[in-house]
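Predict the 3D structure for this chain.
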Amino acid sequence: MGTRTSVVGDASKTGVLMLTLWLSRHGEAVDPDLAKSDFDRALTSAGRKRLAAQARWLLEREQPPELILHSPLVRARQTAEVIAGEIGLESGLVRVENRLAPGIQTEELLKCLASTTAERILCVGHQPDMSRCLAEMIGGGHIHYSPGTMAEIEFGGPILRSGGHLRWVVNPLWFT
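Done. Predicted structure below.
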């Protein structure tokens, strides 16, 4: 891993390092009426199974992330833990990132990504934030993010809005 010197903003002041980002919405969670609060909503057993199958399938095709950042909400933490378990990532490399809580803006996520030296990162967050951040990172478009949906975005240079390239999108419903 190299040191990332990039700063969100002016491309002339940024270093060039490759970043591969897996951007994920949390897996299928219990109905809001069945939880004490939105914060406490946990994954369903079906959601856990789909996430595990999806992670195994991706591991056969892609290099896994070396760092997982997740929202502080329970369902996002559990999503990160399921994926980390399937790819064999150490628990110290699975971290809560408060900026991934509902309402994150793309510029904040870009700053977060630019502040790490990891070259392959998985971020687990919420809707509508993940689809909006994805669209803004790749320069437009719209992708429906059902629970557990994951996309890979590559930044071949500065980590800037519209600076990413969409490589793939995986829908967890493929793994039912």
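Residues 11 and 158 are 6 Å apart (CA to CA).
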